[in-house]
């Protein structure tokens, strides 16, 4: 009860939104949705021109990318792709295969990249 009151005061959500957040156990679901929307926006603005989750475009389909690439390498790859090619054989091989040097996004923070990861993972889940 106390939690939904805080949400109400902070965000000025409508009664309907307040009820929905209660149904999903307080702030957790709300915060997940907010982070995910951020991830979606960042993905659309920076990545979607070359990547889809499920289809190969200019770049590989990203579903399951975390099984192929440890997160520390992902941060490096997104922020400074040149350095990542030197550290990761996997990425060096992909670069050869696609014959494209990946953009670097030095302005994306780890937190931004975490939001993008969360969005890709959520979008990769099979539709029930
Ligand atoms: C201009 C096109 C382009 C853009 C924009 C782009 N990528 Fe890529 N991406 C590629 C290509 C091509 C590869 C293949 C590897 C290479 O060329 O270095 C790749 C590879 C990857 C991989 C490794 C693939 C795998 O499945 O193992 C990840 C992860 C990735 N990109 C994430 C991103 C994210 C996140 C963004 C946005 C912040 C982004 N890319 C923006 C073209 C792009």
Description:
The protein has a single domain (35-124), classed as Cytochrome Bc1 Complex, Chain D, domain 2. Helix 3 crosses helix 8 and helix 5 packs across helix 6 (81-87). The chain contains 8 helices and no strands. It is mainly α. It is globular, with a radius of gyration of 18 Å. Mean pLDDT is 82; it is low at 1-24. Bound molecules: heme C. The site of heme C (HEC) has 22 residues, from helix 4, helix 5 and helix 7.
List the helices and strands and how they pair.
Elements: H1 2-11, H2 15-23, H3 27-46, H4 65-68, H5 71-79, H6 81-87, H7 89-98, H8 110-124
Helix pairs in contact: 1-2, 3-8, 5-6, 6-7
Bound molecules: heme C.
Notable traits:
128 residues, mainly alpha, Cytochrome Bc1 Complex, Chain D, domain 2, 66% helix, binds heme C
Summarize it.
The protein has helices at residues 2-11, 15-23, 27-46, 65-68, 71-79, 81-87, 89-98, 110-124. By secondary structure, it is mainly alpha-helical.
The whole-number mean of residue pLDDT values reads: 82
CATH topology-level fold name: Cytochrome Bc1 Complex, Chain D, domain 2
CATH superfamily: Cytochrome c-like domain
Distance between the termini: 31 Å
CATH C-level class? Mainly Alpha
CATH architecture tag: Orthogonal Bundle
**Number of DSSP E strands:** 0
Report the biggest beta sheet as strand number plus sense, adding barrel if it closes.
none
As a whole number of angstroms, the C-alpha radius of gyration is 18 Å
| Helix segment tally | 8
User: Which H/E pattern describes the elements?
Assistant: HHHHHHHH
Structural class: mainly alpha
How much of the sequence is in beta strands? under 5%
What's the shape? globular
Small molecules (ligands, ions, cofactors) in the structure: heme C
Integer tally of domains: 1
Helix content: 55-70%
Return residue spans where pLDDT drops below 50 for at least 5 consecutive residues. Answer: 1-24
């Amino acid at each position: 009860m106390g939690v939904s009151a805080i949400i109400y005061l902070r965000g000025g959500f409508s009664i309907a939104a307040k009820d929905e957040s209660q149904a999903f156990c307080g702030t957790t679901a709300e915060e997940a949705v907010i982070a995910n929307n951020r991830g979606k926006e960042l993905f659309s603005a920076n990545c979607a021109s070359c990547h889809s989750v499920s289809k190969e475009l200019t770049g590989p389909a990203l579903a399951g990318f975390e099984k192929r690439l440890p997160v520390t390498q992902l941060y490096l790859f997104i922020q400074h792709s040149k350095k990542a090619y030197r550290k990761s054989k996997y990425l060096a091989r992909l670069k050869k295969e696609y014959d494209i040097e990946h953009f670097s996004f030095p302005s994306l923070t780890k937190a931004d990249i975490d939001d993008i990861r969360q969005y890709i993972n959520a979008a990769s889940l099979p539709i029930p």
